[in-house]
Amino acid sequence: MNPLKLLDLSYLFDVHPGSTFMYFWPLLILFIVLFVSSFKVGPKGIASRMREFSVVGLLLTFLRDQNIPYLGMRIWLVLLFLAAVAYGIWYWKDLNKKANMKPAVEEQKQADKYLPKKKGKKKKSKRK
Amino acid sequence: MIPILYESQYISLQTLWVFVAIALLSCSYLAVQRLKRAHVNFTLFIEHSVTFFLCALILSRIFYFGLHTDAYLPGFDLRTVWNFFSIWDQGFSFWGAFIGFLIALLYRLYKSEENAWKWLDALIVPVIVGMGIGSVGTFFGGYSYGRPTDLFWSVRYEVYNVKYTVPVHPVQLYALLFFIAVLVSKRWLSKKTDFFNREGNSTFYYAALLSFGLFILEFFRGDDTLLIQGIRLSTFFYAFFSLLSAYFLYKRIRQAESSKTHPHEST
User: Fold this and answer.
1) What residues in B contact A63, CB-CB < 8 Å?
2) Is pTM, for the whole model, over 0.90?
């Protein structure tokens, strides 16, 4: 397999890419494993993203396997993986940001403890 | 497959039309029940049912005629006019009928100053049920069949109206499963959110989901129709309606969210 092919637009946008492709089984196993493991992942956001990724991936693999014109183009699977990578990077950056902000947030919480509570808030909690 | 349910010297009962009749009857029954529950003037639906039926019939024929120009319009002469009126050749388009019915209904609602959203919310479920029953009929009759495939759940038709002799996708059954999934998803979501309490939201939800699903399913179809750049004409319509209804659905979701965060601003 030549990865440089992925830079060839005519390869990516081939309307009838053919139903035989070597990465059918690896993709199928990957998406199924991801879907099943999403139920055991702790953070809810990641679990639902994993489920979405695997369901869309399974659908695209099926469309590719059936050589459905336009919907079976290679570009869709490439875009799906790019989106997953982009989400991964964003999530990692977000985690880092939260980790950096944690001491400041904790400090603020400690300081807020000594402030008088707002009256409005108290009333609301009473109503509940 | 069973394209003909019963055949004798005088009469032949085609499976597709039996299912169409069942779909129409169950659709009408369900529509009346839901309209009653929606507290609208449902007698309007019964009073003008003949007009609705005729509008649906005419538009259905026009659509079918337009989509099969190769068969009906080899050249314009008197025979073409005759071909249009010879409805016993069973050339009808479901979407033509649907649009004809919708135009007649909306016109009548506008004239009677009725709330159209309430009507559409009530009628869209019977339409989906009818489409589901109809798809069973097309499956047994060998209409709207799929592309060739080697999947283990593929079906092989041995009827004159199917051009493939190899196994094909049971695309009619995919459609049936999809309709069931759409109805179930709405029911499930209704329990989780009050979004569907606002009139018109159910219509947009169903319209967006249905047109998107049917857009995907169109690519699995193998029967002949008008093609543009190798894509079925209806695919473009589904794509357009899918985007349009998704846009309105998105707007409604945003409105619902903003009215939750700023309850006093909403009117």
Assistant:
1) 219
2) no
Please provide the size of chain A in residues: 128
Domain hosting A42: range is: 3-127
ipTM of the complex: 0.76
The pLDDT-based confidence of B264 (bands split at 50, 70, 90) is low
> What residues of chain A lie within 8 A of the CB of B214, using their CB?
none
Give me the residues of A, 72-91, that contact B with CB < 8 A: none
Residues of chain A in contact with residue B151, where contact means CB-CB under 8 angstroms, are 66
Please indicate whether, in this complex, the C-beta atoms of A69 and B230 are within 8 angstroms of each other: yes
Are the CB atoms for A83 and A50 separated by under 8 Å?
no
Write the DSSP string, chain B: --SEEEE-SS-EEEHHHHHHHHHHHHHHHHHHHHHHHTTS-THHHHHTHHHHHHHHHHHHHHHHHHHTHHHH-SS-SHHHHHHHH-GGG----HHHHHHHHHHHHHHHHHHTT--HHHHHHHHHHHHHHHHHHHHHHHHHHT-S-B-B---TT-B---STT---SS-B--HHHHHHHHHHHHHHHHHHHHHH-SGGGSTTHHHHHHHHHHHHHHHHHHTTB-S---EETTEEHHHHHHHHHHHHHHHHHHHHHHHHHHHHHSTTT--
Inter-chain CB proximity B219 and A68 less than 8 Å: yes
Q: Inform me whether the pLDDT recorded for A97 exceeds 90.
A: no
pLDDT at A128: 44
3-state secondary structure chain A: CCHHHHHCHHHHCCCCCCCCCCCHHHHHHHHHHHHHHCCCCCCHHHHHHHHHHHHHHHHHHHHHHCCCCCCCCHHHHHHHHHHHHHHHHHHHHHHHHHHHHHHHHHHHHHHHCCCCCCHHHHHHHHHC
